[in-house]
Automatic annotation (TrEMBL):
Domain Formamidopyrimidine-DNA glycosylase catalytic, chain residue ranges per copy: 2-149
Single GO molecular function: 8-oxo-7,8-dihydroguanine DNA N-glycosylase activity
Native organism taxonomy: Bacteria, Bacillati, Actinomycetota, Actinomycetes, Micrococcales
EC number: 3.2.2.23, 4.2.99.18
Family: Belongs to the FPG family.
Organism: Brevibacterium aurantiacum
Domain of life of the organism encoding this protein: Bacteria
Needed cofactors: Zn(2+)
Alphabetic keyword roster: DNA damage, DNA repair, DNA-binding, Glycosidase, Hydrolase, Lyase, Metal-binding, Multifunctional enzyme, Zinc, Zinc-finger
SUPFAM superfamilies reported for this sequence: Glucocorticoid receptor-like (DNA-binding domain) (SSF57716), N-terminal domain of MutM-like DNA repair proteins (SSF81624), S13-like H2TH domain (SSF46946)
Cleavable signal peptide: none
Cross-referenced InterPro entries: FPG_cat, FPG_N, H2TH_FPG, Ribosomal_uS13-like_H2TH, Znf_DNA_glyclase/AP_lyase, Znf_FPG/IleRS
Protein name: Formamidopyrimidine-DNA glycosylase
Gene3D superfamilies: 1.10.8.50, MutM-like, N-terminal (3.20.190.10)
Residue stretches making up the FPG-type domain: 232-266
């Protein structure tokens, strides 16, 4: 799932390439991506792109009087075309969900791999009409220490859960919460109100800042691979921790998993993994 650093990389890539250009055609390859019907996507035809920005994990393309809010979910991403294909798009065939053609000849797709189609595109007069935007908490890179401290102090949830709650802090997902907690040497199961909030906030800024710097000048096609190369624990179950040499462990859930280092984060102890325990019985 694209998180704050990857979406920031998209914004930086797209802004000089599409702002000032005009939409000439819109194609839909997956009807489920559209979460709004009025105005229709075709309303973009002929409009000038006036801006590109990010809120949390959402990409927002602005036009005169309209905004296209794109949320990538787990398997969605943006595909850039220097010369956009002009052939007809077949509905429901392949990963292509939405395509914008520009007057310059360039364009971009929103694509989504796999059979679960959770990516979303909303065309609205104002971004606040999209619940994910209206309910978004402070940005992970701009939340101040007092607000972050209050957020943690008021929660008895696990710290990983709090970091991923977009209504509390926006921009962090499963991958970077793993990386942040590893760098902070905190168990993902630690209770939020028992965590040193100022220290953790410094780590959030450090991890996200470094990730953003590593991705910011890359084209979209290279961002995902570069993101994975920067991980120390996420997606590295069974491999060696680069900090302490312990074996990276995992806790599995129905729809995702988390990775952590027992040596760095849990005093050498493995966290309970009920799903895996049941499989091994």
């Amino acid at each position: 799932m694209p998180e704050l650093p990857e979406v920031d990389a998209l914004v930086t890539f797209l802004r000089p390439r599409i702002v000032g250009d005009f939409v000439t055609r819109t194609d839909i390859g997956e009807l489920s991506i559209l979460k709004t019907a009025d105005p229709p996507l075709e309303a973009l035809n002929g409009l000038e792109i006036t801006g590109v920005s990010r809120v949390g994990k959402s990409l927002i393309v602005a036009f005169d009087g309209l905004e296209l809010v794109c949320r990538f979910a787990r398997a969605g991403w943006l595909v850039w075309h220097e010369l956009v294909p002009t052939g007809p798009v077949r509905m429901g065939k392949g990963p292509l969900a939405l395509r914008l053609h520009l007057a310059s000849g360039a364009g971009f797709d929103i694509s989504e791999a796999g059979t679960k189609k959770n990516a979303a595109a909303s065309l609205v007069a104002d971004r606040s009409e999209v619940p994910a935007i209206a309910n978004a908490g402070p940005d992970a890179l701009s939340i101040d220490a007092a607000e972050f401290t209050a957020t943690l102090a008021g929660s008895t949830a696990r710290i990983k859960t709090v970091l991923e709650d977009q209504s509390l802090i926006s921009g962090i997902g499963n991958a970077y919460s793993d990386e942040i907690l590893h760098t902070a040497q905190l168990s993902p199961f630690a209770t939020a109100n028992g965590v040193d909030a100022p220290s953790l906030l410094d780590t959030i800024r450090e991890v996200l800042g470094h990730a953003r710097e590593a991705l910011i000048d890359l084209p979209p096609a290279k961002v995902k691979a570069a993101k994975k190369r920067g991980f120390r624990v996420h997606g590295r179950t069974g491999k060696t921790c680069p900090v302490c040499g312990s074996t990276i462990a995992e806790v599995s859930y129905a729809d995702q998993s988390l990775q952590y280092c027992p040596g760095c984060q849990t005093g050498g102890k493995k966290l309970s993994d009920r799903r895996m325990d049941r499989l091994l019985k």
